[in-house]
Amino acid sequence: MFARQQAAALMEIKDQLDNAGVGLVAIGSGKPAQAKEFVALFSFEGEMYVDPSLKTYKAFKLVRGLWRTLGPASIGRGMTAMKAGFRQGKNAGDLWQQGGMFVIGPSDQLGNQMLFQHRNQAAGDHADLNAVLTACRAS
Amino acid sequence: MIDLNEKSTAPDVSGLTVLSMEKNVVQLGSLWHERQIVLTFLRHFG
Q1: pLDDT band for position A65 (50/70/90)?
Q2: How far is B2 from chain A (nearest CA, A)?
Q3: Is A38 exposed, middle or buried (0-12, 13-18, 19+ CB in 10 A)?
Q4: Which of A24, A42, A79, B26 could share a disulfide with A46, CB 3.0–4.6 Å?
């Protein structure tokens, strides 16, 4: 449900990212076929990759845990998401792994500089996309 | 976590790969080598 919500929010700023020449890349924890189904069902127009090993999630120090997913904060956000029309689907990836968002690159000009970073502390704890856009414009 | 707009360095991703939807292996760092990207890590697809 929260991945669907995040993808929908990103689609709302996709034109602005395109106009700024900024790519949109998503990584999921499921399998390639599950990613393909997700992209088709929810019209995600960014680039999609997967990392079922979670090694890339660990490299970016993204948090993982049972209570990160099922704690009170997540339940509250889940209610809000459901009121907005998002629904929980079947498990397609790691249930306990949380996400995050970064503005990064180009590494050939800026090194591996990150201009924005947000690590979700619980399910549904998404980045402020206005701050993401500001970081993109500021570079 | 508080969003950080201070410039900081990305982790060392040398050797880290992801899979495309066509199951091609892609070097993670290549995704932002020549361009700026918004990189989002999603929760599970459900």
Answers
A1: confident
A2: 7
A3: buried
A4: A24
